[in-house]
UniProtKB/TrEMBL annotation:
This is NAD(P)H-binding protein. The lineage of its organism: Bacteria, Pseudomonadati, Pseudomonadota, Alphaproteobacteria, Sphingomonadales. It comes from Sphingomonas lycopersici. InterPro entries: NAD(P)-bd_dom, NAD(P)-bd_dom_sf, NmrA-type_oxidoreductase. Residues 7-145 form the NAD(P)-binding domain. Gene3D superfamilies: NAD(P)-binding Rossmann-like Domain, UDP-galactose 4-epimerase, domain 1.
């Protein structure tokens, strides 16, 4: 059975491709990217590497030809990716893909979830459900790596408390590595058809608790400065982050908007991430990484 991975030159896709090659033959793997030259190492191993641009549907029939299962990794641009995903799903099913595994978001199915990013994920789930293919939705919690890197490093560099609008909301941060392993498990196992899995880490943390853990590991206190949603908008404005998805520069340095991030914080504050499941362990056969383990793995990249 041939498996196709979209966005294979990204961090998630590349890790999934490497792990898949531990379980399937190179000839059974197809990797798609807008920049296939970045996948030369996989091509050298006998993997089929193909150009695919979801903004150019003409590239997609040949890209998906021969595939039977697909890992659809959500694209980066909030507000424009639903059209990209629709093009990919339509072309994949027309080419013969019978099962689609999609990297979604925890709480994507909650109608009252205020996170703007939820709208993209739920719309994509609905497109896949209506496509005629069977599916598995992997609804990831917030990545532990995002906390261990992009959240911690600026606080260490600035020496100032991090503004935060998440309040006392809790998150079971999940390692991206565990999400990759779960996706590979679903792609290579049976019995996951038409199921949605909430993927979480093993422990719940508030944002202040997560940064306190980072401070303990770093050997210096890290603090949060609680603020409201308007305070968060002001903070992102000071960093030059675009307010809305429509303001994002295509292929620019910041692929997200402040209304995305502020409503994400609101979603945490209102309890939509307050959930712990055992799906990672049941599908991968191993315990999920703790937030401490992920932070320790990133510790060397933190500024002194």
């Amino acid at each position: 059975m041939k498996i196709v991975v979209t966005g294979a030159s990204g961090a998630f896709g590349g890790a999934a491709a490497a792990m898949l090659l531990e379980r399937i033959a190179p000839g059974d793997l197809i990797l798609l990217s807008r920049t296939p030259a970045r996948l030369a190492d996989f091509a050298a191993r006998g993997v089929s590497v193909r150009h695919a641009d979801f903004d150019d549907p003409a590239t997609l029939p040949a890209a998906f030809a021969g595939a039977e299962r697909m890992l659809l990794i959500s694209t980066a641009r909030v507000g424009s990716r639903v059209g990209q995903h629709r093009s990919a799903v339509t072309a994949a099913v027309a080419a013969g893909v019978r099962h689609i595994v999609y990297t979604s978001l925890l709480g994507a199915d909650a109608p009252d979830n205020p996170a703007i990013v939820k709208n993209d994920h739920r719309a994509t789930e609905e497109i896949i459900d209506a496509s005629g293919a069977t599916w598995t939705f992997l609804r990831d919690s917030q990545y532990a790596e995002a906390v261990a890197g992009p959240m911690v490093i600026p606080v260490l560099l600035s020496g100032q408390p991090k503004p935060d609008n998440c309040g006392a909301g809790r998150v079971a941060f999940v390692s991206r590595d565990d999400c990759v392993a779960t996706a590979v498990g679903v792609l290579t196992q049976g019995g996951h058809e038409n199921r949605a899995y909430d993927l979480t880490g093993p422990e719940l943390f508030t944002i202040p608790e997560a940064l306190a853990l980072a401070g303990e590991i770093a050997g210096r206190p890290l603090a949060v400065a609680p603020t409201d949603d308007q305070g968060m908008f002001a903070y992102f404005d000071s960093l030059g982050v675009p307010r809305h998805a429509s303001d994002i520069i295509p292929d620019g340095p910041i692929p997200w908007s402040s209304d995305d991030m502020v409503t994400f914080g609101q979603s945490i504050r209102e309890g939509f991430f307050d959930r712990v499941t055992d799906h990672v362990a049941r599908i991968t056969g191993r315990a999920p990484k703790t937030l401490r383990e992920v932070m320790l793995a990133h510790r060397a990249s933190w500024p002194a």
